[in-house]
Amino acid sequence: MSWTDEICVSCGLCCTSLSLVRITEDDLERLRRGYQVTREQARRMVRGDPGEFTILMEKTAACPALSSKGGSYRCQAYEHRPGICREYECYILAFAKEWLKQRGAHQSVDERNPFHSAADEEELARQVRESIQRMRASFLHDCVTHQNGEGFRRPDFMPELIQTLSGAEFAHSFPPAGTQSAASGRPGGHGPTGSEAG
User: What residue spans define the domains of the chain?
Assistant: First the structure.
């Protein structure tokens, strides 16, 4: 796994209630088959109408497949994650990959790229990590400062979101409790090992 992929799957920002993550019936079916969960158990992770669902982000203001420990995040459903999670790429990593592509082709990096000043790949990685930390701090500041302000798009579960953005640790049970994992042979087992998440 490349360092950009490692950063992507350990960031966790797009897996919190900062986002409305809409998934399809096919996504639920992929999770159901991949982790041997019942249709009812899969639907307990979402809300919405048939055909389009939104992942529930309640007690921790985060996706029910996400866990947090030591400032890093882990997606326990990464192997069978929904299509929107597979397709999404944040602009920070898009700029980093553009830098890598241009440097790899021995081209100068466009000055519109926020990382154009990075002298080498090690400095690029440092700048990317710092950008993610600033983004998290900015989201946290906005939530704390404007949570009761007029016109502020108040995310659901604001106190929980503030705790999550502040680095609170949490461990979701995934697959949902009461399932039988073919890989572990025990209820609530994790089956296929997930990747570090985001």
Answer: 3-165
